[in-house]
Structure formats: C-alpha cells, structure tokens
Amino acid sequence: MYIKTYSTLTFIALSYTLLLMPNLHAKSFKINTSKSKVHWTGSKITEKHTGYVQIKSGNVIIENGKLNGGHIVIDMQSISCDDIENNKYNKRLVRHLKGEDFFNTVQYPEASLKIRKSTKKYSGDYHIMADLTIVGETHPVEFTLDMEKKKKAYISTGLLTVNRLEWGIRYGSGKFFAELGDRMIHDEFSLKFEMHTH
Question: Which of 91, 117, 118, 195 has the highest count of CB atoms within 10 angstroms of its CB?
Fold first, then answer.
C-alpha cells in the first residue's frame, strides 16, 4: 500500500514538473522592424488608396522548425499614403484616417495581432487563426501565411482582409448610410505584409 501510494505521488509530482518546464524546442525570434512592412489598401466605388503602416515590435515562435505563435504590435500613428501625389490631399486623407471616423489614433495609438493557432498546409504555407485588435476591440481573423528561412532569419508574407464594420468603423459604409453614391467606402480593406526576423 505504501509503495503504491509513493509511486502515485511520484508520478503526479513528475507530471507537474514537466508541465512547468519551458519548451526547450521553442524559440522566440524578434521582428526586424526596419525591414518589415505592412501595406494597406482601401477603396470606394470610384477609386482606391494605398499606403503603409509601421510595425512597432513583435516576435514569432518557432518550434521544431514550424511556426507556433507570434505577436505583432503596429504603430497606428505611422499611417501614411503613397498614391496621392498632391501633398495637401495626401495629408487630408491621412489626417482623416487617423481621426475618430476611422482609427482614432490619439486614443488608440497601437493595433496588434496575436497568433492563436497555426496549421502547416504545404511547404512553408500556414493557415493562421489570430486575434486582431483595432480601436480597442479584438476580433478573430484567419489568413494564409507563407514563411521561409534564409540563413538564421525567417521571412513571412501574407494578405489579411479586414471587415472594418466588425470593429465598429462605420464611416461611409453603405450598410449604415443611405444615398452615398460614389462616396460610399467599401467595408473591407486589406493588409499585405512582409515580416523579417533578426
């Protein structure tokens, strides 16, 4: 009886210890913010606009050679436009995007993406399930990511389509405002990203 009880307690203690031990096969790689970039595209019926937003910080978790997690912080105050040559109208659009009608960057200067689950599909391709936080609200998103290793660094590329209505950004939406005509802004915008690790 004593031997059985002792063996049971030893097994429980060992199992608990293993659960608390760090995963020695997982490694965190910091995002190289100077090389990484996020290119946005937004559109309405008659035209579209494009630009960049900067990654502030982040990391990806690699376990046994596979992507197993990650967290990216985006500097929303870095929003820029690269398709309007007229300086006056360029600044007007950027100011509007940073304002309360859209991303309210004074109150919400950061956005973030946290990978909850990554499933490897093909060589280098992953199906990503993540939480995207914009204007203080967090909602799930899914997208495909391609990752390759070059020397000791990793390069990830992908395209994320975001329906802004899920985050309460309704300005210019035909679903909430009538008779907008060609001033109607599409509800979805895209984020094309390229991330490099150190």
Answer: 195
